[in-house]
Structures are given as C-alpha cells and as structure tokens.
Design brief:
The chain starts with a strand and ends with a helix. Helix 7 packs across helix 10. Helix 14 links the parallel strand 13 and strand 14. The protein is α/β, with parallel strands linked by helices. The protein is globular. It is built from 15 helices and 14 strands.
C-alpha cells in the first residue's frame, strides 16, 4: 500500500539530510503542514534545534494579502518557528528527493482565533467559551475556513491535500496542562459538553423546533448528577438519548450534522475551484458523525461523495476504516492513519501486522504519524515494516 508520512516544515528546513531520510523510510509521499495549530514539537535529529514551539495557529507560507485585506478573521503568519515560505522551502527539498508532496491543513482548531475574536468560539451550555474551537455554524467562520482551505491546500508543487478538523471541535482538546479529566464524561457527556450555544447555533436549534434556553437547561440538568459522581454519562448514541431525551438529541444532531456536511461541501468545492486537474482532496474523518475533533465526525456515504477519500485514525484499532469500506466507492482513498511514535502511544514494531489488518478491512493506503517526531529506533521499525523485512 502507498504510504505517506506526516512532516512539519521545521523538520526539513535547515536539515539537509531530512528529505533523503524520509524517502528511505519507503514512503512515496509526505503530508506536509501548510496551516497548523499551536504546538510544541520535538525535533530529535535536527542539526540546529531539538524543540520547536509554534506559539499560535498560523499559515506556514505567505498568505495572499489581496484575499484577506480588511477581513476578520484572517490567517496569521508564523513567527520565527516557520518564517517566510517555510512550506515552499520544505516542499521543494522533499520533491527533489523524489517524494510526492500533499498539504496538511488544520482548519477548525485555532486557539489564537478564539483569543482575539471570542465571539467566534463554541459556547457550552454553561456559557463557557472554548477558544480552541471556532463555531462552524457562524457565517464569518465558515467563510474564513472555506477560503483558508483553498489557499492552504493548493500550494505550489502540491499534488493533493488532507484537510484536518473540517467539522465540529468540542471540549476534548489536548490543551496545554489540561486538567479536565477529574470527572469521567464518557462519549455522551463529551457530546453534551460540546454542544454550542452561540447565537448562530441557538438559531439553528430553533429551526429544528427546539427552544435554545430549554435545551441548555436540559443539558445542565442531565449533567448535574455526572458532576456529583452519582451517574455515569453513558456511551455512544443511546447514552446521549438517555441523558438528553430522544427528541432533543435527534434535533441537535440534525442541526450539527447538516452544518458540518455543508461546510465540508463548501470547503472541498473551494479547493477544487483553484486546484489543477488530478489534485487529490482527502478529509481526516471519524465514521461517527456526532464525534468532535481533529478527525471530524462524518457520514461515510456523504463524505465519500464529496471528497476523494478519507484519512482515518487506526492506532490500536483499525476498525474505524470498515464503515468507509462498506460504502464501496470505486477509487476512493481509504488511508489508515497509524501513530509510529512509541512515546506518543504508537506501535511501530507492529506496523506490518497493523497495516495488514487495516488492508483486510478495506484500507487502500497508509498514513504514518509522524516522521519528524519519531526516534531513530521508531523510524528503523517503520523502514523494516514498509520494506517487508
């Protein structure tokens, strides 16, 4: 199966050996970040540094000033962690090493956006804002994400794109020094704590026949025993219906599913309008439509009618690839994404077996997270797995 490794520009720029090292893994492709959220990243082999701190969500190339003039929100250029056209510099070096370059674009995950423009953020039933989670129901946010998708995806030299966080983001974040796990929320509690009550979402609930104030009160009432530790929040969709009631639960899901689907349609269409022929568009996706996060919850049939395929989290369990395979869309890319960094929960030593199981379930390609973060020993295990040794 074709394999692609995720890479940051700062893994490559300033390290002349990086492109060949990545190519020697046995990958045909790299998925190179062009728009990315804040992070602190290890660079274990770079000759000039060991840790890169990306202080805020930024584009890693020069944004088009004419596109964004006078607009709010607008993308921010990176600081000294990725100056100038960092993406373009890395892409050229990787292409020279014989690797096909695809862009990696993070969309509805942006803490700086929420800090500078609080009204863009998801607001929970208690009135707390999630600055890392732009509300994808808001017209200005949708316009920003759609244009950012097109600009960051179609960079010079790129043959395709992978769009991450193209859907709802919620409570779960992996935020710096995160201390939200004191009460186990479960799948149902996470959903309720991720429901948004900004003005756009309140109007959306109204269109589904719900009173937003009553819905927020119902969410708080449902969660009150969870906070006291008197009742688990349940799991999967039946747990959500139990906490919220069937009618309310279904109405919230209808609103959120429709909002995410139409954004995905608009963003992919925007990319295709400016992309060359044959440009591949994939979405990072979860086959459960009400899930939030980097792997956006989607309806498998719908997303495969919109995009060329999906990148699906499979570390520890390749099962999530199966619902996409069952759709049987000829030519669709179903990429199983495996973490290959041992220190981040990955298992590069079992990559060959894991990939074989994913293939049995319908995967057509592999994604490896992450060539820049992995140790030498992890990369050696990847080389061995991809070479069949």
């Amino acid at each position: 199966m074709k394999a692609s490794a995720f890479v940051y520009p700062w893994d490559v720029n300033g390290d002349p050996g990086a492109p060949a090292r990545i190519a020697e893994l046995g990958t045909a492709q790299v998925t190179l970040a062009s728009a990315y959220h804040s992070t602190r990243a290890l660079t274990p082999r770079h000759p000039r540094h060991r840790v890169v701190t990306a202080e805020y969500a930024a584009v890693l190339y020069p944004a088009d000033g004419s596109r964004w003039a006078g607009r709010v929100p607008r993308p921010r250029p990176a600081g000294d962690w990725a100056p100038g056209d960092a993406f373009g510099e890395a892409a050229a070096a990787l292409t020279d090493a014989g690797l096909e370059v695809h862009t990696w674009v993070v969309l509805a995950h942006n803490s700086r956006l929420g800090e500078e423009h609080p009204d863009t953020s998801v607001v929970n039933a208690y009135g707390d804002r999630y600055p890392w989670a732009p509300c994808i129901a808001q017209p200005d946010v949708r316009a920003y994400l759609t244009d950012l998708a097109a600009e960051a995806a179609v960079r010079p030299g790129a043959r395709g794109t992978e769009l991450e966080s193209l859907g709802w983001y919620g409570l779960a974040h992996l935020h710096a020094h995160d201390k939200t796990a004191g009460v186990p929320l479960g799948d149902a509690g996470q959903y309720l704590m991720s429901l948004c009550f900004c003005p756009a979402c309140r109007d959306g609930y109204g269109a589904e026949g719900l009173d937003a104030d009553a819905l927020a009160a119902a969410v708080r009432d449902a969660l009150d025993p969870v906070w006291r530790g008197e009742a688990p929040s349940g799991g999967a969709w039946p747990g959500i219906e139990k906490l919220l009631g069937d009618t309310r639960a279904q109405a919230t899901r209808a609103w959120r599913d429709r909002t995410a689907r139409t954004l995905q349609e608009a963003a992919v269409a925007a990319v295709r309008r400016v992309a060359p022929d044959g440009f591949q568009v994939l979405l990072h996706a979860d086959p459960v439509s009400y899930h939030c996060g980097a792997n956006a919850g989607v309806d498998p049939a719908h997303v495969l009618s919109v995009a060329d395929g999906v990148v699906v989290p499979c570390t520890g369990d390749p099962g999530p690839i199966a619902p996409f395979a069952r759709e049987g869309r000829e030519g669709a890319v179903l990429a199983a994404n495996f973490t290959v960094v041992s220190g981040m929960g990955g298992s590069p030593g079992t990559l060959a077996a894991d990939a074989a199981e994913a293939r049995r379930l319908g995967a057509t390609e592999l994604r490896l997270y992450h060539a820049g973060l992995a140790s030498d020993a992890d990369l050696a295990a990847v080389r061995s797995a991809l070479s069949g040794r």
